[in-house]
Specification:
By secondary structure, the chain is an all-alpha fold. It is 81% helix and 0% strand.
């Protein structure tokens, strides 16, 4: 629901409304992560890995090995 509201405001709302809905979305994400014993830093680490231009290639190769 929060993602949908943020998306709607991003396309039709003011910057203030976008920030409000994005804040709700991030809050609920952090709550969910906490319930799972995870932290927002875990997500940040995953995003950092994705800055590697080879990231998707490595991921696809690992997935291919798992399928065998």
């Amino acid at each position: 629901e929060g993602a949908l509201e943020a998306g709607v405001e991003a396309t039709t709302g003011s910057d203030c409304k976008v920030v409000y809905e994005a804040s709700d979305l991030l809050y609920h994400l952090i709550v969910m992560l906490t319930e799972k014993g995870l932290r927002i830093e875990d997500v940040a680490g995953e995003l950092q890995k994705r800055h590697d231009p080879e990231w998707d290639k490595k991921r696809r190769m690992e997935k291919s090995k798992e399928a065998k």
